[in-house]
Amino acid sequence: MQRFEAFGEEPKSLAAWSRDPRCVVGYTGLRHRVLDYGMAVEAALTAPSPLPGPARDTSRDAAIRRAAEAGRTIAEVARELGLSWNAVRSVARRLGLKFTTRLQRNVKRDAAITARYIAGEPIAALAREFGVDQGLICRIARKGGAPRRLGRHRV
């Protein structure tokens, strides 16, 4: 794999340079500029495209960064911005962002469900209040260490 030096940094592959925030073109454009057209790497990274066409949307990248820092999930951001889940994920990877998962976000909810389950609240009432089905209430409670409840028909 070829490695290229730029900005006085250690040599990196073109794929790695294309993820660098200073790069104004995508990987394919960078590869064409350096390998096919013989441009210097720094110039290829920073020169705007003379051709009209889709440029990297830095406002979209900024919106995705803000959402990740706010603790949103990839699915929520994708719906809000009208993008695919994969588009949001690829931008997040390029920018080195970590999104909150649904499981991480539901830790407080799961702790509350488990505590109220152990306290004896009816499963149906918990399911209605938290907007989930009764089976999920039981799974969350068991995962939280609550003992399994015996139904009326069991002895």
Average predicted local confidence, pLDDT: 86
- Provide the domain count: 3
Largest sheet: none
- Please tally the β strands and state the result: 0
Order of helices and strands: HHHHHHHHHH
- What is the molecular shape? elongated
The SS-based structural class is mainly alpha
- Percentage of residues in helical conformation: 55-70%
Number of helices: 10
Terminal CA distance reads: 68 Å
> Which value, in Å, is the CA radius of gyration?
25 Å
- Residue fraction in strands: under 5%
- The oligomeric state is single chain
Question: How is this structure best described in words?
Answer:
Helix 4 crosses helix 6 (85-95), helix 5 packs across helix 6 (85-95) and helix 8 packs across helix 10 (134-143). The chain folds into three domains: 1-55, no CATH class; 58-100; 106-143. The model has no long low-confidence stretch (mean pLDDT 86). The protein has helices at 14-18, 27-36, 41-46, 58-69, 74-81, 85-95, 102-105, 107-118, 123-130, 134-143. With 155 residues, it is mainly alpha-helical.
Concise structural overview:
This protein has 155 residues and is mostly helical. Helix content is 55%, strand content 0%. It is elongated, with a radius of gyration of 25 Å.
Provide keyphrases for this structure.
155 residues; mainly alpha; 3 domains
Helix-strand layout with pairing:
Elements: H1 14-18, H2 27-36, H3 41-46, H4 58-69, H5 74-81, H6 85-95, H7 102-105, H8 107-118, H9 123-130, H10 134-143
Helix pairs in contact: 4-6, 5-6, 8-10, 9-10
